[in-house]
């Protein structure tokens, strides 16, 4: 079949850095084509060139056999090419419906007045197709990251699409939403839509895609039919070497109780949450989107006000009213939303790494530039953050590398307890393993780790115990030995009635 999009020998230079080198990529109608590669390989950049967000330095783009050179995404959209971007583009102070129809408002043809009723109804209809019930008049800023992602997806589907680029659409979603989304993707595929699918979740790729194209360091490595390849081959193409075990083994002696939470409540969000984490232990936290996982830990951290409950660190009760109190008690928190909470995008990698670490680096209140630089470089090496130098703005890093900066921020303060909310979201398979190794090292140093994750293989692969949250309550706490995909999902969907959890 003739490709609907054919990109040949695309090259791109960003401030002296060759991020794409003679890359070719094509896609035919009715296929789901995975675009894979490590963080910073150039996937998003290639797609931004296709859709006119960036201009290319070299190469040709054919759409339906004709040469195109889109000046902006609107032109691409007119040819039926739409994108769901990796970074959310929701405008927080507009409503859901206003976001959906931004730039393509529906108005009454005679008067030109905006037809808000039609837009509201259309918004509802597109969201319902994705199984999402949301009030179109709600402020988009008040939605969870997952809900915002759903609005973005609905927005892309609202146009008459022939080519749909999905840049990590599932990173913020959990299993149930992902299944719905996959259903929609299958429908689109059957209607002949070509889908470019970017994801670091290997299981998804093998479940959904027909072909895979791999990029490495800005170069094209190859294209494989999914039926004729396997995970090992793809990983090898991506990282250029064998990766070995996905979840590195942890040999840690679990020690005394580090953190104990008794009856923590934030009425309306969650109730009566009790658990404990020991030195060197990794407690995985699973649950569906909206179950209240992040809210529990944001409250514990003092970023939200609790309505009840007590918190103990090393057997001593601590009063946490604001994040500062939590930090003083030795608690670190890697938030799920790196854009709004984790990072200051305008600042350099160095400054971001130094932000929570001001104390140890400053001498009578003056931060030593030298100390700041050497610490930043240390982290860049340790976490293998792909950046040309420590002074680059964080926003110019690829998504996965931004995530590593967020983690680096907190590792430096030597917390007693480290809460990681979706620590490997958007991170490639090699870097994921590096993050797991960092988690293991921290555990070996006696840090108690809480890892909230929507990726079940990761929760199962990394946790000593797993706490499953269902509708704002602890549904079950499972030991590593008894935990599996089925009993976690059962508890997460409310199928397991286990009322009394005393955190043991
Ligand atoms: N606007 C920009 N200015 C400078 N460099 C950039 C810019 N956008 C991307 N880069 C660089 O280009 C390279 C490729 O980035 P890109 O975002 O395309 O990677 P990716 O494959 O999408 O990675 P990820 O899986 O982390 O999303 C990276 O080294 C990145 O730092
Ligand atoms: Mg990307």
Q: Gist?
A:
This protein has 504 residues and is α/β, with parallel strands linked by helices. It has 18 helices and 22 strands. Helix 4 packs across helix 5 (145-157).
Shape: globular
Q: What structural class do helix, strand and pairing data support?
A: alpha/beta
Largest sheet properties: 6 strands, mixed
Strand content: 25-35%
Model description:
- The protein is of the alpha/beta class and 504 residues long.
- The protein has three domains: 183 residues, 3-Layer(aba) Sandwich (Rossmann fold); 169 residues, Rossmann fold; 70 residues, no CATH class.
- It has 18 helices and 22 strands.
- The strands form five sheets. A six-stranded mixed sheet has the order 6-7-8-3-9-10, sandwiched between helices. A six-stranded mixed sheet has the order 16-19-20-13-21-22, sandwiched between helices. Strands 2-1-4-5 form a four-stranded antiparallel sheet, with helices on one face.
- Strand 14 and strand 15 form a beta hairpin.
- Helix 4 crosses helix 5.
Keywords:
single chain; alpha/beta; disordered C terminus; 504 residues; six-stranded mixed sheet; 22 strands; binds magnesium ion; binds adenosine-5'-triphosphate; 18 helices; 25% strand
């Amino acid at each position: 079949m003739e490709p609907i999009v054919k990109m040949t020998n695309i090259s791109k230079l960003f401030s002296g850095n060759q991020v794409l080198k003679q890359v070719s990529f094509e896609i035919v109608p009715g296929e789901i084509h995975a675009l894979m590669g490590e963080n910073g390989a150039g996937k998003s950049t290639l797609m931004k060139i296709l859709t006119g967000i960036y201009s290319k330095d070299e190469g040709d783009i054919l759409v339906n056999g004709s040469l195109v050179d889109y000046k902006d995404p609107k032109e691409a959209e007119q040819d039926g090419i739409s994108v769901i971007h990796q970074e959310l583009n929701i405008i927080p102070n507009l409503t859901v419906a206003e976001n959906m129809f931004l730039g393509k408002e529906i108005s009454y043809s005679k008067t030109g007045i905006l037809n808000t009723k039609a837009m509201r109804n259309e918004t509802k209809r597109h969201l319902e197709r994705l199984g999402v019930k949301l009030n179109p008049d709600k402020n988009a800023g008040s939605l969870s990251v997952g809900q915002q992602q759903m609005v973005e997806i609905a927005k892309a589907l609202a146009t008459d699409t022939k080519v749909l680029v999905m840049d990590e659409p599932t990173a913020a979603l959990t299993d149930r939403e992902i299944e719905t989304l996959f259903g929609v993707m299958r429908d689109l595929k059957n209607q002949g839509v070509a889908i470019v699918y970017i994801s670091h979740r290997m299981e998804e790729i093998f479940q959904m895609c027909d072909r895979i194209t791999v990029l490495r360091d800005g170069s094209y490595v190859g294209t494989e039919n999914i039926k004729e390849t396997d995970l090992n081959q793809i990983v090898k193409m991506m990282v250029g070497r064998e990766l070995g075990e996905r979840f590195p083994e942890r040999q840690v002696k679990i020690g005394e109780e580090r953190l104990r939470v008794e009856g923590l409540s934030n009425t309306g969000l969650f109730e009566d949450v009790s658990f404990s984490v020991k030195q060197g232990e990794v407690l995985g936290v699973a649950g569906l989107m909206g179950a209240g996982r992040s809210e529990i830990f944001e409250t514990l951290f003092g970023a939200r006000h609790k309505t009840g409950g007590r918190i103990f660190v090393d057997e001593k009760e601590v009063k946490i009213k604001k994040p500062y109190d939590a930090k003083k008690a030795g608690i670190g928190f890697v938030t799920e939303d790196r854009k709004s909470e984790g990072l200051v995008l305008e600042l350099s990698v160095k400054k971001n790494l130094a932000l929570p670490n001001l104390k140890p680096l400053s001498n009578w209140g003056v931060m030593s530039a030298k100390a700041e630089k050497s610490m930043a470089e240390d982290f860049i090496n340790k976490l293998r953050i792909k950046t040309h130098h420590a002074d680059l703005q964080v926003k110019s890093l690829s998504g996965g590398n931004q995530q590593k900066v967020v983690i680096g921020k907190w590792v430096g303060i030597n917390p007693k307890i480290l809460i990681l909310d979706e620590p490997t979201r958007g991170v490639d398979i090699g870097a994921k393993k590096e993050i797991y190794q960092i988690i293991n090292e921290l555990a070996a140093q006696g840090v108690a780790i809480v890892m909230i994750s929507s990726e079940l293989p990761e929760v199962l692969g990394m946790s000593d115990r797993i706490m499953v949250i269902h509708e704002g309550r602890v549904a079950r706490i499972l030991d590593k030995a008894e935990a599996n995909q089925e009993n976690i999902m059962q508890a997460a969907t409310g199928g397991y009635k286990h009322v009394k959890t005393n955190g043991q």
